[in-house]
Amino acid sequence: MNELKKTTAFGGAAVVLVVLALLTAPRRAVPDAFFDVGETFFPEFTDPDTATTLEVVRFDEETAAAAIFRVTNRNGLWTIPTHHDYPADGKERLARTAAEVIAITKDDFRSDNVTDHEAFGVIDPLDQSVSTLRGRGRRVTFKGASEEVLGDLIIGNPVEGQPGLNFVRVPDQNRVYAARTNIDISTRFNDWIETNLLEVERDDVKHIALNEYQIDESTGGVRRRGEFIVDEVEEDIWTANDVPAGMEVDVVQINVLVGAMMGLEIVGVRPKPEGLSGNLRQAFEARTITNADLQTMQSRGFYPTQAGEMLSNEGELLVRTGEGVLYTLRFGEILFGSGNAVAIGDETSDDQEGGVGENRYVLITAEFDASALPEPPQPSNRDFENKAVGQWTDGDRQNKERADLHAQWQQRTETGQSRAAELATRFASWYYVISAASYDRVHKTREDLLKEIEEAPPAPTAPPA
Question: What is the average pLDDT across 16-31?
Fold first, then answer.
């Protein structure tokens, strides 16, 4: 019995020891480094519509400089401050991009060691304390109306073997994550502006004129070829003023030209001096145009005259709509280059005489041309207004018809004048730079708009009886 008690005691002690061992054994802990995996980067940034500014910074290793793109809303007007405050069409794109950034989560923790930042490509492109040019990421910052930072990320290299994932870091933090960043953050100037700059549609165009001339820069003379004028007389039926025998207007090429105007590719802008944004004749009389202004214009291929006219290196394209809005595109000098050197210019880009990429300066104006909407006859009287319709005479009916037509003309005229004034204000402050491809599509000669008359096929002959 004593042996049994001893055995039982030893057994009980063993059980107690096992329990104690289980209670005191070290557990496998989740590393603190992974505590926030799965969370969003900016939990307080939930409404994309609160973002009013987007800034994207890229580092150019070739120039060893950061390239900054910024679009913002100031007092209800969207502009691109990094591109001379040019008007932007950015609300929808900004909100969409902000929503994509809000949704980014910390998919995986990778490192909190600052020495890994170069390999991951998450060095801040604005960090001047780091000497290396390699490993700098793209920094994306969203701000609210009071300039408060809503979100700020550095997006680095793609994660090898995991498509769609990039290394990501919050500035001023060492922690690097892998995150899915399938977001469309464009810094291309023409992705943020009105793509149909002229806001003209195919059916609007009723009149086209090619003012063909060239400036001889060595002598200052003008080589004129004349004006080739094309008008739509009926739907898709066009006539011209100077058509050689056997030729006719090529409607297909007219449509191609109008389509090119609708898709005019603006790759850059330059602000005009204040004196050049209004009436040239008044500017000359008031002497608000300086010699430096004139030299800049001439270097870009534009030559204002004392009479208040404007000549350009490669002639002009004039297009008029059915509302009487007359656009004039004046084609100037070639501008070589690409990227920001073309989009906004720098100290040397506008003076290059060769290089990669041929773009073209263009001046655009808009005005109302009253000749497009001739005034119809007014009613001789308005007696019909005081009569019942059943009491109208033939004269009353004619006067009512004239009154209706005149009211329609007046409405169209007011619409055209308002539209022309709005467009004139839009174009007044800018030199535009268009791509070479866009220039080739809109800069046409009369030969481009003509074709040989196609002979009608012979009428079928009756089969023999």
Answer: 45
